[in-house]
Design a protein that fits this description.
This protein is of the alpha/beta class and about 240 residues long. It contains eight helices and six strands, in the order ααβαβαβαααβββα. The protein has helices at about 15-25, 30-40, 55-60, 80-90, 105-110, 115-120, 120-135, 180-190; strands at about 45, 65-70, 95-100, 140-145, 160-165, 170. A six-stranded mixed beta sheet has the order 3-2-1-4-6-5, sandwiched between helices. The longest helix has 16 residues, at about 120-135. It is globular.
């Protein structure tokens, strides 16, 4: 039984967000995770792009069996799909493969080939944002692995947020982690990592829209290179 089912049956979720965001700003990562699990119970899930399993490792220590949503766009690298399968085999979580309403072939028949190059925002919406939105409908909250250090658009995010677009709570337990802290956690705990990281891909998205990054380049410069796009839309 969760806090929502007992002490606060009628409390508005936005009120929970405001009080928790203030109380948990700067709190240890596991404290944030424990608060979210105690508050939302089975009505919280975790999303992962399968770049690494750091957040999966952290959350599964507090809530084994948690649902992990992976959006299978149909354009992923084989290494990303392989990481998803490895996560399912190694960690005590329930991986849920989320797919768009149309296959790649059906989308190309309706909208033409290479939509990702002609209209990447629409392609991301159809193959990432919309299917994830459908998959999240059964939950009250979700864990996200975004970090402030990744992009300028994420610097003003909060550890607990009201996801207005989806009408639910978003929890960002590793928001303040630096890349060094992430690397150290992965090494110290033997966390699974997408092998593309070792081939020059510090940020991994769909194969047609992701290229390797040269030493010294911005880690996310390989995403939608040359298109002036930095986000798929899930975290906006």
């Amino acid at each position: 039984m969760t806090l929502l089912e007992t002490d606060r049956p009628t409390l508005d979720l936005e009120d929970i967000v405001e009080s928790a965001a203030a109380a948990l700003e700067g709190a240890p990562t596991l404290e944030v995770i424990r608060w979210a699990v105690a508050t939302f119970g089975d009505r919280i899930c975790l999303t992962s792009s399968m770049s690494d399993a750091a957040l999966i490792h952290l959350v599964s220590k507090v809530k084994p069996g948690i649902d992990v949503l992976f959006v299978d766009t149909g354009y992923h690298f084989a290494e990303t799909v392989g990481t998803r399968d490895a996560v399912e085999a190694v960690y005590p979580v329930n991986v849920i493969n989320v797919t768009p309403s149309r296959t790649v072939e059906e989308q190309e028949a309706a909208l033409g080939p290479r939509l990702f190059g002609r209209n990447p925002d629409l392609c991301c919406h159809l193959r990432k944002v919309e299917p994830l939105g459908r998959a999240l409908e059964g939950y009250m909250a979700w864990f996200s692995g975004i970090r402030r250090a990744e992009t300028a658009s994420r610097r003003d995010r909060r550890v607990v947020e009201w996801d207005r677009k989806r009408g639910m709570v978003k929890v960002n337990p590793i928001l303040d982690w630096t890349q060094e802290e992430m690397d150290n956690y992965i090494e110290d705990n033997g966390v699974l990592v997408n092998p593309l990281h070792y081939d020059g891909y510090p940020s991994i998205g769909c194969a047609p829209c992701t290229r390797p990054v040269a030493p010294g380049e911005d880690p996310r410069s390989g995403r939608w290179a040359g298109l002036g796009k930095t986000e798929c839309g899930i975290h906006l």
